[in-house]
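Sat 14:20. Reprocessing the chain from the morning session after the first attempt stalled halfway. Input below, unchanged.
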Amino acid sequence: MNKKEQLVSFSFVFPALVIFSCFYIIPFFYTFWLSLHEASPINVFDLTFVGTQNFKEAFSPPILAGIAGLFGIILIFFALKNKFKKVKRESLAKTIQVTAIAAGITCLFYAGATLIHILKTSLAFTPDPAWWNSVGRSFYITLWALTFQNCLAFLLALAVDRAVRSGQFYRAVFFMLPILGEVVIGLLLRTILRAHPGILNHMLESVGLSGWIQNWLGRDFALTTLAVSHSYRGFGYGFIILLAGLQTIPEQLYEAARIDGANAFYRFTKITVPMLIPVIFLVIILTILGTVQIIGLPMALTRGGPAGQTTVAVYHIYNELQNNYVGYASSLGLILGFILVVLSFSLLKVSKKINN
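Finished this time. Tokens:
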């Protein structure tokens, strides 16, 4: 391909690259830059450079030092094992290797210096409890999504696949809830679940189940109600992906298994599940990424209450932004993004090991 053909090919990609840069790449680097600054409470554009202070507020120094040390060990390990040999240009691979070793040594030096300082001063440090509690709530909802939501999606996908392999009607029915959006579902469920005059409690009372009446959005039930509501709303995505995966499995495999005398359980465990492993891991990763980042549903359904019981991670970041803590909110966003990236790549690695 000559230069003119390359230029023509690049011209087709360039508009998408510009849009991607404007909405993803540039905001990411700007967020990283903001995380190193502190904004004035009066004017958010009046920034003061504070370095890694925002990250230190989110973590306690011992935890931060431990993470830095672990990251340094990983970088040096990958560099010494020459994990960058897949890079085609040898000079670039060598540069990356040397840079990784230098970065790893820097991280280890920082970890050692921080731990020595802590031992000398004997200061008590604690991480931001409100932030880590919100992260815990996000992963509590994620646990519900990974179990209840995805099991429901899988069972419905199996039922629809068995009923009609090419039907479009069921796809549309089960995909209706995700189309409505988080805010719409949240407002509808708030009307249904509020204590008085809630539609659900009124129905329970009318059928003689007054003992079941609860304040579903109160302190005792709010987080679980939010988790179930999110699972109820979001199972459509997993349903569509799993159904598509099921319909890629050749029918001849099931016919051959039936001829050999395999029962339904054997066909499910030896054909369906192994063939769906890549799709299942994809659904798991998308579920984690989508659930940890929810904000619309808690804002509409519970507004973070009562007493912050349903303030999830992204909602907490939003509150910090509302309070003009721009730098701290940016650092929390980067921390959450790093956690999700590590989880995603770990699951992809496990998926590849199982497939191989």
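The radius of gyration is 25 Å.
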